[in-house]
Amino acid sequence: MSAPFEERSGVVPCGTPWGRWYQTLEEVFIEVRVPPGTRAKDVRCSLRSRHISLAVCGQELLQGKLFDSTVTDEGTWTLEDRQMIRIVLTKTNRDAGNCWTSLLENEYAADPWVQDQMQRKLTLERFQRENPGFDFSGAEISGNYSKGGPDFSSLEN
Predict the structure, then answer these.
(1) For residue 122, how far is the Cα from the chain centroid?
(2) Secondary structure (H, E, C), 41-66
(3) What is the Rg, in whole angstroms, of the alpha carbon atoms belonging to the chain?
(4) Please, is 5 exposed, middle or buried when counting C-beta atoms within 10 Å of its C-beta (0-12, 13-18, 19+)?
(5) Do residues 108 and 14 make contact, with C-beta atoms less than 8 angstroms apart?
(6) Quick one: where's region Disordered (predicted)?
(7) pTM of the prediction?
(8) How far apart are CA 89 and CA 84, in angstroms?
């Protein structure tokens, strides 16, 4: 089980007009399609704790207030194959109950089914961290998993 949980279990993406976004317990990933041949000097990206702005060749692609706060100095962006920008934001609140329902406040929201799948995945990721000897990457859960699922921390060993 050396591969990260998201590599073994896959991601639950939320499609957008410009690409997609998805999340783990700790991070939010944003993938933005850009014109082939785009160069890094054509990209203007600003990542702040609660705000994001991305422009390519002077055209604003993404701008607004993030759904929740992020760690400003851990945010990064990369231009991949000169046709996609990948932005990685580190969540400030990194528990399974902090499942972002949208990328920006009131914009790029996950539909209810995708939101449900995202919450299930974060709950399984939490179970994986709490039980490192087990592999939850292919597990199915049902019942009450909203807000990160049941809390077993008060049970005695």
Answers:
(1) 10
(2) HHEEEEECCCEEEEEECCEEEEEEEE
(3) 17
(4) buried
(5) yes
(6) 138-157
(7) 0.85
(8) 16
